[in-house]
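A reminder from the course coordinator: this example appears on the midterm review sheet, so study it carefully.

Given structure:
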């Protein structure tokens, strides 16, 4: 298909498609003439993947690039691919003002991980982000005990194995892309559901 057809089917402007080609996010098409190329279903699938990651998951292009590199590297085991997903979606910026709370927050994070029986690297972005959240709560005087957060952890522990059941063990190329984007979009979905639950229960409890 021509680039105009690719653009139309993907719902992505031609200028954006050309930008992705220049940036290497989209592989080049098969040359058919001077300044012309043909594209196929693989290009369409990649464009739809990029659109999902940028428009729905709100990932930066640098995060998308790193994730696509991991997806394309079929030598990378699936656990490492999901680690790349974690790095792509987790925003962690240390706040020096919270340093005084980091030790106790880190202890609580590790206690939660231990009580769940999880194996999590100490340098995992998600663990660091959890420590930052707990430190911030302490800084604001809104400390919650570990037991309070166990319900959230148990919810994750219930849903993630079900999500992994959707992944084919061989981790073929197309399956790697699907598994990666599912894990990200399901996280967006859970955030949306939690916000809807907040709207419902806050209205039910406090009126209005």
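Designed residues:
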């Amino acid at each position: 298909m021509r680039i105009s057809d690719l653009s139309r089917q993907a719902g992505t402007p031609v200028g954006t498609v050309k930008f992705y080609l220049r940036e290497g996010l989209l592989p080049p098409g098969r040359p058919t003439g001077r300044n012309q190329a043909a594209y196929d279903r693989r290009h369409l699938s990649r464009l739809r993947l990029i659109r999902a990651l940028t428009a729905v998951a709100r990932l930066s292009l640098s995060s998308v690039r790193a994730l696509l590199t991991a997806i394309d590297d079929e030598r990378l085991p699936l656990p490492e691919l999901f680690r790349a997903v974690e790095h792509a979606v987790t925003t962690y910026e240390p706040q020096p003002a919270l340093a005084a709370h980091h030790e106790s927050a880190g202890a609580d994070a590790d206690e939660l991980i231990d009580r769940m029986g999880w194996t999590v690297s100490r340098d995992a972005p998600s663990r660091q982000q959890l420590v930052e959240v707990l430190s911030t709560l302490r800084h604001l005087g809104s400390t919650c005990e570990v037991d309070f957060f166990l319900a959230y952890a148990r919810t994750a522990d219930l849903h993630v194995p079900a999500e992994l059941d959707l992944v084919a063990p061989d981790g073929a190329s197309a399956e790697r892309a699907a598994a990666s984007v599912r894990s990200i979009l399901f996280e967006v979905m859970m955030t949306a559901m939690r916000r809807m639950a907040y709207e419902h229960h806050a209205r039910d409890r406090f009126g209005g």
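Residues 4 and 14 are 6 Å apart (CA to CA). The chain has a mean pLDDT of 91.
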